Amino acid sequence: TPALAAHPNPAPASALHLRLTLDREESCSLTLHDLQGRLLWTFRQTLPAGTHDLPVHWQHRPAPGLVLARLETASGHVALAKVVLTP
Fold first, then answer.
1. Where is 86: in which H helix or E strand?
2. Any idea where the domains of the chain sit in the sequence?
3. Structure pTM?
4. CA distances (Å), 51 to each of 40, 59, 61, 87, in order?
5. Cα 71–chain centre separation
6. Chain mean position to CA 38
7. How far apart are CA 62 and CA 72, in angstroms?
8. Distance (Å, rounded) from C-alpha 53 to C-alpha 55?
9. CA distance 10 to 41
10. Domain 3-86 - what CATH class?
């Protein structure tokens, strides 16, 4: 089962990283949404088994507040994390 966490949390948007752990090589979709459901960031790639630390590079920096991170793998597993963005 994959795992997902944000660090630091809370974090300024400029310093946010997402850490995910996979049991095996997987095609992954990782997204960040605001509480209105708007897509803020996306990452899609096949990753090997293990722990991966991904910096979030925003196209448009979001406002401070709560955002939701979602990891979905090709095998259908889903992991969620709440992230607090600070100014």
1. strand 78-86
2. 3-86
3. 0.93
4. 23, 25, 26, 28
5. 6
6. 14
7. 22
8. 7
9. 17
10. mainly beta
